[in-house]
Design goal:
Distance between the termini: 30 Å
Structural class: alpha/beta
CATH class: Alpha Beta
Number of domains: 1
Helix content: 25-40%
Order of helices and strands: HEHHHEEEHEHEEHEHEH
CATH topology: Aminopeptidase
Number of helices: 9
Shape: globular
């Protein structure tokens, strides 16, 4: 069984530099050294030590087996059902589809379709009506071919969905019991206008349910340098979530050991944006490296770095612990 490298490089063994593309430097905590472990430290280490690369890679493989995951393709419900079953397989019998209708004009043709978000939840033991959210869009698109017939989307965004499902699996497997509920949402139709996140965030706002934080995974499997000492990630944030991004950078420095760039310039292009528009503190985790296969038929598993994905997945785990 191939295990994640988090146990080798995490918990402050590798120092990270925290930079920003917005002119506001994110916090850079020093190596914690031999500080006494806290209860949260123990929980984080428990979760990190159970993140599995093979599990993440298998989910990426399964999602890329679909010939296309384009939001307007006729197999969109089939894909949603498959993701629902992935959640059930790792212990979430409450996994269900949340449907919504959407209209979109594509290449001069009007489409009115049913779209399908997929939701699973780990119920909180103290405040179950309050939630932390982890989400990732599962649709894809290509610009060098016909997205209706071939859009594999390994990095964008099978990797993000795989990381989200791995967080869910690890929490179930370890028996982690959060005080507030953790909701996992596979989002539809990001590539044609953030439609899934807009629908879900709108319903969430109407429900009045308290939302603590939202973590979105988007393209978390691309690094251009094989040396992990030079690996970098981005946290994309809006104005109301700068403190959340800053604190998360400190957690990355302490537990994960990769560089972090803060970026508010692309905040409207990712699924965390509709949540921020509803007043929720939301951020997106993504690779900082460019991907030459972005939105092409070459976005394949062989070009993904699952070791890197496992680190981003681990950061989601520890962030949820600290915001529980």
């Amino acid at each position: 069984m191939k295990m994640t490298v988090i146990k080798l490089i995490g918990f402050g063994i590798v120092l990270t530099g925290l930079l920003s593309t917005t002119g506001c430097e994110l916090n850079n905590n020093p190596d914690p050294g031999n500080q006494k472990l806290t209860h949260k430290d123990s929980l984080c280490i428990m979760l990190l030590s159970n993140v599995r690369q093979d599990s993440i890679g298998l989910t990426v493989d399964k999602l890329t087996e679909f010939s296309s995951r384009f939001a307007l393709a006729p197999n969109r419900k089939e894909i949603a059902l498959a993701i629902r079953d992935m959640f059930k397989k790792v212990g979430y019998e409450n996994a269900a589809i949340d449907s919504f209708q959407a209209s979109k004009t594509w290449n001069g043709q009007d489409y009115t379709t049913w779209q399908y978000n997929v939701i699973a939840e780990l119920e909180g033991t103290v405040h179950p009506d309050s939630v932390n959210i982890v989400c990732a869009h599962y649709d894809d698109i290509v610009t060098n071919g016909d997205p209706f017939t071939h859009a594999p989307g390994a990095n964008d965004n099978a990797s993000g969905v795989a990381g989200m499902i791995e967080v869910a699996r690890v929490m179930k497997y370890t028996g982690y019991k959060p005080a507030i509920s953790t909701r996992f949402v596979a989002l539809a139709a990001e590539e044609i206008g953030l439609l899934g996140s807009a629908d879900f965030a709108g319903k969430l706002a109407l429900s009045g349910k308290p939302v603590n934080i939202v973590i979105n995974h988007d393209m978390i499997a691309k690094v251009n340098n094989p040396n992990y000492l030079f690996w970098t990630m981005k946290i994309i944030f809006n104005a109301n979530s700068f403190s959340l991004a800053n604190g998360t950078s400190s957690l990355c420095s302490k537990y994960i050991g990769i560089y972090v760039l803060g970026d508010s310039t692309k905040s409207r292009k990712v699924d965390s944006y509709p949540f921020s528009q509803k007043g929720f503190k939301a951020m997106s985790f993504t690779s900082a490296d460019s991907d030459i296969n972005y939105h092409t038929t070459n976005d394949l598993t062989i070009y993904c770095n699952i070791d890197y994905s496992s680190l981003i997945t681990g950061l989601s785990c520890v962030t949820l612990v600290y915001h529980d």
